[in-house]
Specification:
266 residues, Alpha-Beta Plaits, 28% strand, 10 strands, 5 helices
Length: 266
């Protein structure tokens, strides 16, 4: 979630903006169940791959798509953001939306398209992200929630869940809640501005707002907090993981299908 692929390397300055080109900022929603995540993949089934294919078909020339961050296979997005450089004056924003959506799979949709400064960068200009995790807390999983929520049939103490989430808010070293992606992070310090927990009948949602998130951090935080809500762990366990970053690590990770990238903040 926190880092981009080779396809997205670059700096947020105007050097990437070619002459006679304009930069488009795209807001994208997708149902992640059928795709291999955001990042371009050898099987060409990443969200990035489908966007490149759509642009290439329209422009008859290759483009590079730069995303605000990666989502894993099975993870959904309500407001992923990307940017791309295209020939200047080719289409108005509304035409780009219509043309791209007609070329994309139905599970990927461009919601907004805006012309932005060449200094804008989907990843480097971002100041934070909002993620939502959906849990279906009922004996029976509703069939329309398959692939869209984590089914947890046992009772969850929501009050305990809310209480144990409070020490997580703020700036901490979250190394205990990060999976290994095969390379070291420059820093594992992140700031979580807030965690909102709501329950409406069988649906329990946890919403995380922060300046950035490590690889699988939201899924690991969700599953770890839930251990307390289910009465399997004492609240002090969460505090200990924060106090001893990386020395002790959680081994609990929520499945991808309950996770949604809600918005990218700029």
């Amino acid at each position: 979630m926190a880092r981009n692929s080779k396809l997205e390397r670059g700096t947020p300055n105007a050097k990437r903006q070619t002459r006679n080109a304009e930069r488009l900022k795209l807001t994208i929603a997708y149902d992640g169940r059928l795709f291999s995540g955001w990042q371009s993949q050898p099987n060409r089934n990443g969200i990035q791959d489908h966007l490149v294919h759509a642009f290439t078909g329209i422009l008859e020339s290759p483009v590079k798509i730069f995303g605000a961050g990666r989502t894993d296979a099975g993870v959904h997005a309500l407001g992923q953001v990307a940017h791309v450089d295209v020939p200047s004056g080719r289409f108005p924003s509304s035409t780009w939306i219509a043309a791209l959506n007609s070329s994309l799979p139905g599970q990927i949709r461009i919601l907004k398209c805006a012309k932005v400064s060449p200094k804008f960068h989907a990843r480097y200009s971002a100041t934070g992200k909002v993620y939502r995790y959906r849990i279906w807390n009922s004996t029976v999983l509703h069939p329309l929630e398959i692939g869209r929520a984590w089914h947890v049939p046992k009772p969850i103490a929501v009050d305990a869940l809310q209480a144990v989430s409070r020490p997580v808010v703020g700036q901490h070293d979250f190394a205990s809640f990060a999976a290994n992606r095969g390379k070291l992070e420059e820093s594992t310090i992140r700031t979580i501005h807030g965690i909102s927990i709501r329950q409406r009948q069988s649906l329990l949602t946890l919403e995380f707002c922060g300046d950035g998130f490590l690889y699988r951090m939201v899924r690991m935080l969700t599953a770890s907090l839930l251990q307390v809500g289910l009465g399997r762990k004492d609240p002090s366990w969460i505090e200990e993981l924060i106090r001893q970053p990386g020395i002790k690590k959680t081994n609990h990770t929520a499945p991808p299908e309950g996770l949604y990238l809600v918005k990218v903040l700029y």
